[in-house]
Amino acid sequence: MRKSKAVSAWSLVAASALVLSACSGGDSGSTDQNGSSTDIKSMATGKAQNGENFKLADTKGYEGTVTVGIDDGYSGYNNDTPDTNTSYNTYILTAVLAGADVLDGNNKVLLNNDVFDSWEVTSKAPQTVVYKIKPNVKWSDNEAFDCDDMYLSWLAHSGKAKTSDGKQAFLAASTTGYQLINEATCKDDLTFETKYTEPYLDYKGLFNSTAIMPAHIVEKRSNVPDITKLTPTSDAAQLKAAGEFWTNGFKAFKAEDMPASGPYKITAFDANQKAVTLEKNPNWIGGKGGPSKIVVKAMEDTKAMATALQNGEIDIAASTQPDATAAGTMKSLAAQGVTYGSASQLTFEHIDLNYKRMFKDKNLRKAFFEVVNRQEITDKLLKEVQADATPLNSIVFMPGEQGFKDLYSSKAGLGAEAAAKTLTDAGWVKGGDGIFAKDGQRASFKISHNQNTRRQQTVEIIISQAKAAGIEITDDQDANFLKGGRLAASDYDAALFGWSAAPFKAEQKSIYITRVDDSSQNYQGLSNPTIDSSFEAAVKATDEAVQLESYQKADQAIADEYATLPLFQTPSMWAFKGIDRTYMQSYNGVLWNVGEWEQKK
């Protein structure tokens, strides 16, 4: 699953956080219609959470090792470059790196009060936000976590730092929000001030945990004496050196270059076993609870993950790739002391159509939408996981959010006859093999995705639906499709994957506006002036009503392009034993509050 930066596409909150409640009901030990145990909802908040602040509770902890299964493997300590930017890195790094915000299980945006004293808007003209870091916060290698790290985060994400040949010095997955900061200043070691060229309502989505890399490591490895002396227009050679290391130097596992600022540090990475070992950060300033050691394993077969939990090979099965058989297995383990949970995520499954290939033909895009019956996909693949799962009918908004409108029921799932008519009216002709063709191009293409059983099943269903309309589809399953660079390189006809959203909207801009450089996440080549101008207006808006209207306009324009077909809001499913409480946070996974876990009594 890919992850976007600051706001959606996995992204953020445009004025109010989207709150997704877990499902509960019935007597103790029973399950509700979605299968979640009755006490799951209460686990969505931290034990010491207070108002708008989050701190990890100082608990007795858990002596021993907790083994966690997730769907895919870790690929990089810096998760903010285009080729490492995945949810699966975030699921691990949330326990390793500290940022200004914490999202609880209800997706409420909270100040990380273990590390920061405040984030305050001190002026509205120009918008000025001041961050106060707590005294004595340290990285696990004993270096100070201070304003230098915040400054590097801005420099790397701003999109302003260029090399002598005019290229981006730092290749960030998204610059949204950061590019509006024209002054970033360390007032002292613990005070970081940002001034914006334009108002930015989603500022709390910036400087999150994966955005803040250790400045002292970048300085050391790139021979830059003081990162705060570098400006976007200063020494191009030093910018190039710092940017090169920031972009590429954190990829291969090297413990001495990858310290922790959060409660845990990475002590081992087995690429062959796709396993990461975490141990407590001795310099962590917050609560001292949580397991002594955590092993996070990639288990791409969700059914095998459920079986591993049943057999005692793992303690937590945490999947964002819902599977009916696996869900049934997990729910059957209550007698073994297993608690099961499911909840809608700020993640959506979708299919992007590549404008650089045959889908530059809008009529083919339209016919594809018409032939895909998303209700059949949802019914067959999700109902056992979450009984009330339905197709998703917006790209920018989730159901229940202010601004949500159904834009896709009238476009998708209209049937084979409607799709065939669209192609016929556009000059496509059905050949003797039953497949439409036009100008020597057959209506034959691949749907590419990573190694994932549910996605394979999704494609199988679509293949059958499309065949009836004279469209030929082939399943292109590649274990490295997401993290191997194919998606980012636009090496696909149609791409089946998920965007994971924190509760802000602004970062969707990077995914859907016209691509101008390699920092964009618009891999499909979509380019539409209404989409561009609407996102620009939304991000710059100072009035929430204007912002909402602009996001709605962008949402409508994306739908009218037939560019990306939303399938469903992906439900997570997780199950655990031996631990008092875990909750699968929609954006950060189960480890978001691992530092306060305790052994179940």
From TrEMBL:
Annotated region described as Disordered, given as residue ranges: 24-43
One annotated Gene Ontology cellular component of this protein: periplasmic space
Keywords: Signal
Protein name (Swiss-Prot/TrEMBL): Oligopeptide ABC transporter, periplasmic oligopeptide-binding protein OppA
One example GO MF annotation: peptide transmembrane transporter activity
InterPro entries from the UniProt entry: Peptide/Ni-bd, SBP_5, SBP_5_dom
Domain of life of the native organism: Bacteria
Comp. bias (Polar residues): 29-40
GO biological process: peptide transport
Domain Solute-binding protein family: 114-508
Organism whose genome encodes this protein: Amycolatopsis azurea DSM 43854
Signal peptide segment: 1-22
